[in-house]
Design brief:
This protein is an alpha+beta fold. Helix content is 35%, strand content 23%. The protein has 2 domains: 3-172, no CATH class; 234-314, no CATH class.
Length: 327
């Protein structure tokens, strides 16, 4: 994509992300709500363009990798709280990613690491780390701020460059890559669809999602087959859930992790009926509150997950949209 086209795409993204209208003059309310967003957006764009200009004029002091015909540059100096990854092919700029922190192939995605600093180091840049037939870059971006947000772009450096996909990971900092010898990697992530739902962040469940490579679509997708788990023994889970409720004097709107966590793990493992059985046996409060919680979970919260179609398929349900009564 030519630089001018990329700038236009950035501006379109900025308009959408900041809640401004595509055409016409925005209202005063829209301007007020979006002003900081726009300022930050253009600050990031300016930083990216500055890095591109430095590289073009040979002034860069960035870390670089040569993956012929590609070159990868990453600026992690972060002196202005913005780091940038830029990608060139045959000497021409084709792609950039920018955020408060940008990492490329973080080692902690692929292997166990002994500490944080080791986990941040780039891992096998220029190798086919996913087994898709070409070098791949997993570009992790962090927006900054408490409890949010991380995203992941997957870049394939084949004969033709392509951005395989971009995923919003919310609070999930680490993607676990599992690559069998000679095979295509799978990915394991946490679904943070439930953060702050009926409790503080520390009590929010984050069930596991397993993604596999869909060769036909050319991207990764949640795989119900790989997500299915054996049914665990519910008795100790029920005991812990009842104890947690009694200890915390749980209200209907504040549900301990020991209640919601096992329920979502069961559903994400393909055991919807067992999840309801667990809830009935573990609940220590009023039955009407329990039923309201279950209805909100199954009719609203589950269906708001990015991965709802796979979760529905795993449990033999239609992938219906959230109920009309959902807020």
């Amino acid at each position: 994509m030519a630089l001018v086209e990329r700038q236009k795409a950035w501006n379109r993204d900025l308009t959408a992300n900041c809640g401004l209208p595509d055409h016409g003059k925005p209202t005063d309310a829209e301007i007020g709500k979006s002003l900081l967003c726009v300022r930050l957006g253009f600050l990031y764009r300016a930083r990216v363009l500055g890095v591109i200009a430095d590289i073009a004029q040979g002034r860069d002091k960035l870390r670089r990798w040569s993956i012929p015909p590609y070159e990868v540059f990453i600026d992690t100096r972060n002196d202005d709280l913005i780091s940038v990854l830029s990608l060139y092919k045959d000497g021409h700029w084709i792609y950039s990613a920018d955020a408060t922190l940008v990492r490329v192939n973080p080692k902690e995605f692929f292997v166990e690491t002994k500490d944080y600093d080791e986990g941040q180091q780039p891992y096998e840049v220029g190798r086919d780390v996913l087994g898709v037939g070409a070098p791949a870059l997993l570009v992790s971006g962090y927006t900054g701020g408490a409890h949010c947000c991380f995203n992941l772009a997957i870049l394939v450096l084949g004969t033709e460059f392509r951005e395989m996909q971009r995923m919003d990971l919310r609070d999930d900092e680490i993607v676990k890559i599992r690559k069998p010898a000679g095979g295509i990697a799978t990915m394991e992530i946490d679904d943070f669809n439930y953060d702050y739902w009926r409790g503080p962040f520390s009590e929010s469940p984050a069930p596991k999602i397993v993604l596999s490579y869909d060769a036909k679509a050319g991207q990764y997708a949640a795989d119900p087959t790989l997500m299915r788990t054996p049914l665990p023994d519910l008795a100790p889970l029920i005991e812990r859930a009842r104890a947690a409720q009694q200890e915390d004097e749980t209200s209907p709107n504040l549900i301990p992790h020991d209640v919601s966590g096992p329920i979502l793990d069961l559903i994400y493992g393909g055991h919807l009926a067992a999840a309801h059985e667990f809830l009935v046996d573990a609940w220590t409060g009023v039955a009407a509150d329990r039923d309201e919680y279950w209805n909100e979970l199954t009719n609203c919260r589950l269906r708001h997950s990015h991965f709802w179609p796979a979760i529905a398929a795993l449990n033999g349900l239609p992938a219906d949209k959230p109920a009309g009564s959902c807020s």
